[in-house]
Design goal:
Helices cover 8% and strands 21% of the residues. The chain has 314 residues and is mostly beta strands. Keywords: Lipoprotein, Signal.
Length: 314
């Protein structure tokens, strides 16, 4: 059964995105929901037995589980209050559940396989249930490339982080600018509720664009915008400069709408643009408001609301 909780907003968003993407010759895609499992999942937790190979702490275990244990059911999902992030979703053992910006929610799809899935173990859909604080209609599942079923919240595939060693850890928050703790709504957990892209008035640089986490957005002078977006940041470059994933046009504030669109990179990842220029964050920025990427290599610059590189030589 497909979820329909966002169907009305998706129609409006799809129309807006289609109108914008024609500016650079891109096409929009249609979306579907994920299968709902929240209302029918059997009660789980530490007492449920996973049928997935590699289960690290089974029904007879009395030790605190490790988040890196593969195949362990989430059990009864709960909502915890975190001083830094506000309300976050945890499994029955108190481990934080994360979402990945390179995944998609409409339709649900996981992009984390191989070594990625060792660091970020996918949370199985089997055995998951809802204790309180989460709308059951948002809880579903997606079939991974290997045929296993992964838990989703609002369409977003759920993961644990191998370096979270005890309940309440949020060591995966913000890793590579693409991994974030999950709010009960399926959105990224955050005390502040910024739009997907907005404008901040920096004391040195003036008006610059930031993402929904308040992190500074950058442009790479070696990229191209016309006749279509082209990113020349690939391979190891992306470790330092993670791409900004597409956001809906109505989830922005103060940013020029012309050429505000997403495109598909040669590696298959989705990336956002401003005025058709690909945009990124910087791994060297550790907190909102930092601009450590400004001027790096003479090719990386913060972005003005109209898509121009702030501080670049003319």
């Amino acid at each position: 059964m497909k979820t329909s909780w966002r169907s009305a907003s998706l129609v409006a968003t799809a129309t807006a995105v289609l109108a914008l993407t024609t500016a650079c010759g891109q096409e929009s895609t249609q979306s579907t929901g994920s299968q709902n499992v929240g209302a029918t999942a059997a009660p789980g937790g530490l007492g449920s037995i996973s049928t997935t190979p590699g289960n690290g702490y089974g029904a007879d275990s009395t030790a605190a589980p490790s988040a890196s244990a593969n195949g362990q059911s989430a059990g009864a999902l709960t909502v915890a209050d975190n001083a830094k992030l506000g309300k976050i979703v945890t499994d029955s053992a108190g481990f934080t559940l994360y979402r990945f910006d390179q995944d998609t929610a409409e339709p649900p799809k996981s992009s984390c396989d191989g070594d990625c899935a060792k660091t970020w173990p996918p949370v199985p859909a089997e055995g998951a249930s809802v204790a309180s604080g989460i709308d059951k209609s948002l809880v579903g599942e997606v079939t991974r490339a290997d045929g296993t079923k992964q838990l989703t919240i609002a369409g977003w595939p759920m993961y644990r982080f191998a370096k979270d060693t005890k309940a309440g850890d949020i060591n995966g928050e913000g890793v590579k600018g693409t991994w974030f703790a999950t709010a009960p709504t399926g959105k990224k957990a955050a005390v502040s509720d910024l739009p997907g892209l907005s404008v901040r008035n920096d004391a040195k640089l003036g008006p610059i664009v930031v993402d929904k986490n308040g992190m500074t957005v950058y442009r790479f002078l070696k990229d191209k915008a016309w006749p279509e977006p082209v990113s020349n940041c690939t391979g190891a470059c992306l470790e330092k400069w993670p791409v900004v994933s597409p956001v809906a046009a109505d989830d922005t504030k103060g940013v020029k709408k012309k050429g505000l669109m997403g495109f598909t990179r040669p590696d298959g990842a989705k990336q956002m643009t401003i005025n058709c220029w690909p945009i990124y964050t910087f791994s060297g920025d550790k907190a909102p408001g930092e601009t450590n990427g400004e001027g790096v290599g003479g090719t990386w610059y913060a972005v003005s609301p109209d898509g121009k590189p702030v501080g670049a030589s003319k």
